[in-house]
């Protein structure tokens, strides 16, 4: 049984295609970017491995520099396939990293690359969690339909704070205090 302060060594965060060309095209792109910042910062803080994917970067550009700056040591994997696991190099690299069993996914676009990556990860025998507040799409109705379908397929769809609190397990974790500050820093203003 893992100690209360250990990080699950089978969990990995994949930040999918957070390239400015896509972020600017999705509904509430700035909010999705901010929530990806939160997820990446939390993953780095607790020592969770992560990587970025980029869809055809030679034509569509690189991952948002602000996100990469939060995890400068994380690999960046270019791809042509919509599913990150549809790229043989990414598939092999991901499954070699700390014997990944559980994939956390944030990024865009929910109804294309996020959806196809989650389906492929399930087919590869991985547990999958979509960080519901850290994904986005051009068409929100399509995104909701895809998230509902993924849930029925066995994917967990949960807010990022919920997931990272679960990884911390309790207030005894050495990153807990810093994490609560991160939660407050990335809090969205209350609507009236």
Distance between the termini: 45 Å
Shape from CA axes? globular
Strand content: 15-25%
Largest sheet: 6 strands, parallel
CATH architecture: 3-Layer(aba) Sandwich
Q: Averaged pLDDT, please?
A: 90
| Helicity level | 40-55%
Write out the strand line-up for the largest beta sheet, numbering strands in chain order.
3-2-1-4-5-6
Low-confidence stretches: 1-6
Helix/strand class: alpha/beta
CATH class: Alpha Beta
Count of separate DSSP helical elements: 9
Structure, described:
With 192 residues, the protein is an alpha/beta fold. It has a single domain (11-185), classed as Rossmann fold, CATH 3.40.50.850. Helix content is 46%, strand content 19%. The protein has helices at 20-23, 29-46, 57-60, 65-70, 88-96, 110-123, 140-153, 160-168, 176-185; strands at 11-16, 50-55, 76-79, 102-108, 127-136, 156-158. Helix 7 (140-153) links the parallel strand 5 and strand 6. The longest helix is centred in the first third of the chain and has 18 residues, at 29-46. Mean pLDDT is 90; it is low at 1-6.
Give the key terms.
alpha/beta, Rossmann fold, 9 helices, disordered N terminus
Topology:
Layout: E1 11-16, H1 20-23, H2 29-46, E2 50-55, H3 57-60, H4 65-70, E3 76-79, H5 88-96, E4 102-108, H6 110-123, E5 127-136, H7 140-153, E6 156-158, H8 160-168, H9 176-185
Parallel strand pairs: 1-2, 1-4, 2-3, 4-5, 5-6
Helix pairs in contact: 2-8, 2-9, 6-7
């Amino acid at each position: 049984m893992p100690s209360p302060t250990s990080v699950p060594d089978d969990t990995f965060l994949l930040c999918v295609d957070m390239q400015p060309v896509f972020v600017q095209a999705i509904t509430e792109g700035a909010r999705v970017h901010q929530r990806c910042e939160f997820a990446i910062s939390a993953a780095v803080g607790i020592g969770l491995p992560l990587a970025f994917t980029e869809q055809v970067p030679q034509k569509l550009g690189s991952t948002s520099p602000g996100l990469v700056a939060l995890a400068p040591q994380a690999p960046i994997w270019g791809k042509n396939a919509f599913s990150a696991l549809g790229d043989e190099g990414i598939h092999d690299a991901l499954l070699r990293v700390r014997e990944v069993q559980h994939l956390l996914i944030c990024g865009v676009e929910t109804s294309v690359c996020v959806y196809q990556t989650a389906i492929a990860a399930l087919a590869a025998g991985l547990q999958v969690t979509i960080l519901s507040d850290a994904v986005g799409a051009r068409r929100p109705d399509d995104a909701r339909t895809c998230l509902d379908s993924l849930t029925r397929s066995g994917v967990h769809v949960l807010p990022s704070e919920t997931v990272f609190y679960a990884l911390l397990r309790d207030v005894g974790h050495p990153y807990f205090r810093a994490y609560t500050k991160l939660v407050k820093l990335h809090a969205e203003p209350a609507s009236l």
